[in-house]
Amino acid sequence: MTTLTYRDVKIEQIDEVTWIIPPVKGMRVPGKIYASRKMLESIIKEDESIQQVINVATLPGIQKYSIAMPDIHWGYGFPIGGVAATDLDSGVISPGGVGYDINCGVRLARTNLTLEEVEPRLEKLVQTLFQNVPTGVGAHGALRKLSRQEIKRVLRDGAAWAVEYGYGYPEDLERTEEKGRLQMANPEAVSPRAIERGQDQVGTLGSGNHFLEVQVVQEIYDAAAAEALGLFPGQIVVMIHCGSRGLGHQVCEDYLRVLANATSKYGIVLPDKQLACAPIQSKEGQNYLGAMAAAANFAWANRQVIMSLARKSFMDALGISEKELGFRLVYDVCHNIAKIEEHQINGRTKKVCVHRKGATRAFPPGHPLTPEVYRSVGQPVLVPGDMGRYSFVAVGTERAMDETFGSTCHGAGRVKSRHQALKEGKGKDLIGEMRKQGVIVQARGMRTVAEEMPHAYKDVSEVVDVMHRAGISKKVAKLKPIGVIKG
Amino acid sequence: MYRIIAHTADTGLEVEAPSLEELFREAAKGWKVLVLEDSPTRPREQKRIRLTASDREDLLVQWLSELNFLLNVRFWVMHDVISLQLTHRGEHWHLQAEITGEPFDDKRHYIYFEIKAVTYHQLQIRQEDGTYKTRIIFDI
């Protein structure tokens, strides 16, 4: 085993894919990074995310490790791909540990259809999805503009609000992380401006890296788990990637200001202002937790509505009944969230606040929060890749509970800036290029397509493989996109 | 003067101006080009903006956030900044501005970037040789 050096800090390899940063300079716990040697070398060169792993380790009340996934890259305060759990009494909560897009997450729905059945009508299907699911900046929701009171209900009830209005079924809630609703949500802690930003955004995909994809199950790695999840080779599935839209961004912005003041009020010394935080039990900490949970609920309602719009689009475009289509939620996971969870620390069960920023919960088989239908195989983990290559389905493991507070990776991460990707795409027929790769793309603007081309992203399979080899999550299936809609 | 800068996942602006007021005006211009590129805008309506912050960096974040809010939530596009005044009283910085613009029209306007937020990342307004300089990163 070897060591690598980041500035003057030693990073020690403890096995093929695990590295430790022993505590230095104010770190309360060691850093722990999951990556191959090659990946870690490029992470060290690329940006300052290793420094951010070190910074997070200085937070009051942090438990065990400041953890980084193989898809780690620079983020605001915390790295994206970072996990940190803090003690409920002595620890802090930090909006930088969640990110601007609160409960940005992924939802996967299965169908009864095969590639052969859908391929001849794929063009029409993608067009219908694009017409029915509002995408891009300034898109109005598929619903009427909701009143402030109604938004508060969304913030309180999450996905259940959407189901109550006929967007989906109660069984969907069983297959959503936290059943699509964080009970600690406090709509009163959400500012009027944040509510206004959400009023006509329920049921909108947004822009940037958010998407809705028609995918085909290309490869199965674990037959038993795939069967439990209702997946089979050649099957058509739908993946939805989006979050809490402007409402969540505003909650983050509002509370960064509140918590920046709280940091000095409570005498917390930080190596980076962007780690602004407050004791979990303080008024400021509790308000942020309540507002963040409310925004998370908004995101679940959003994805629940979008899934329903996708179901209807399939039925309309293909002219088939709901029963023939068999459109059912496989699972819905968050990638950006802070939650109060029970974990084993020094042999004792303890409640901690787990920050997952660009990381996915990966609870094991048998865990009470793993949905009953998946209890024998583990909680499904959804890891989206770029729009040309593939995405992955995995399941959580007992090892994740022991090592990462039940968390794993979340995606590919960019390798080229948007600017660079845009420059390289100038004058090229990018939609045509994607079509040659077997992917039909519909987007509001060519600029988004250029920025999101596959070569702008790292290969997500390397990320998923590291977590598989580390035993943190187990690969179940590989999904290939064939139809993409974007903002 | 402003310059659009690339950051792996995000984007930003480097801004320089001979005064603090000019710096805020230039930042608004840069923000507009970044978000709307060359979409033509008209000065059909006028709005007054008043903001208060604990320091000038926070005031800059609030200023650009306000323009962003008007665009993404109120669907109102800024055309130009007619007047802008900054004052420093006691512990606070105040901004008063008048801007022109018009309601968003999807036939003429196209939003290229959805800026989720204006960040405080390494945000610092410096004064070097009589020139104010800053670098702002947007979360997109």
Structure, described:
The complex is a heterodimer of chains A (487) and B (140). Chain A is α+β, with helices and mostly antiparallel strands and 487 residues long. Chain A has helices at residues 37-46, 49-56, 115-118, 122-132, 148-157, 159-164, 170-174, 192-198, 223-229, 245-265, 283-318, 322-325, 398-403, 418-425, 430-436, 446-451, 460-469; strands at 3-6, 9-15, 18-21, 31-34, 66-73, 80-87, 92-93, 105-114, 211-220, 235-242, 278-279, 328-334, 336-345, 348-357, 360-361, 380-383, 391-396, 407-408, 440-443, 473-486. In chain A, the strands form four sheets. Chain A has an eight-stranded mixed sheet, sandwiched between helices. Chain A starts with a strand and ends with a strand. With 140 residues, chain B is an alpha+beta fold. Chain B has one domain: 3-Layer(bab) Sandwich (Archease, Possible Chaperone, Chain: A, domain 1). Chain B has helices spanning 20-36, 56-72; strands at 2-6, 11-17, 45-53, 76-89, 92-103, 117-118, 126-128, 131-139. In chain B, helix 1 runs parallel beside helix 2. The radius of gyration of chain B is 14 Å and the shape is globular. The model of chain B has no long low-confidence stretch (mean pLDDT 92). Chain A binds chain B through residues 46-47, 73-74, 76, 80, 100-101, 136-138, 193, 196-197, 206-208, 246, 249, 252-253, 256-257, 260, 273-274, 413-420, 445, 447, 487, and chain B through 4, 6-9, 11, 58, 65, 69, 71-73, 75, 104, 106, 110-114, 116-117, 119-121, 139-140.
